[in-house]
Amino acid sequence: xxDIIEFDRIDKDGPQSYRATFELNAEELDRVELEKTxxxxxxxxxxxGDQPGEYILDGTSTFTADLRCSRCDEPYPFANTxxxxxxxxxxxxxxxxxxxxxxxxxxxxxVEFYSERAVPLKDLALEQIQLAIPMKPLxxxxxxxxxxxxxxxRRREACKCESSVVxxxxxxxxxxxxxxxxxxS
Length: 185
Ligand SMILES: [Zn+2]
Ligand SMILES: [Zn+2]
Fold this sequence. Notes:
With about 180 residues, the protein is α+β, with helices and mostly antiparallel strands. It has 2 domains: about 5-130, no CATH class; about 145-185. The protein is built from 4 helices and 7 strands. The chain has helices at about 5-15, 25-30, 120-130, 160-185, and strands spanning about 5, 15-25, 35-50, 55-70, 75-90, 110-115, 120. It is elongated and about 90 Å long. The mean pLDDT is about 85. It binds zinc ion (2 copies).
């Protein structure tokens, strides 16, 4: 299995296709939202771009994981498939530092700068996963989360606190209504 994209090989033999599956561990991704990671599969077509030294990487990464819901704190299964389109260009002179900001215009947001003419598929896959994991994962759109009063998971069981809060609200409304009636009369 070839799991490194080599630009020299593309120069020599033309466009290349790659496909690899990796087992990941949660530490590699370092995201608290991650409970458990499944395998990730990445498929990439790599070819030369229009600019000198430019390479275009088109592909898809697919992975499954268990994420922890940011509201109710329960793990839930997550599956993601993200297509990507990246342009790799040689790192401009004088910006050797890994994290140095390079001015790029909006339509060039998918540009990445390389110093090495080899890109491990696993690095690409990790990058796509980082982008795909939501900042605030939700087990379901309307997850009610934990009850702020008794801590019960309101997705699973109803607690008494909620109904008493609702009752209070009705009580408050009734109070306002009485108040308005008094003013009217
Ligand atoms: Zn939840
Ligand atoms: Zn409660």
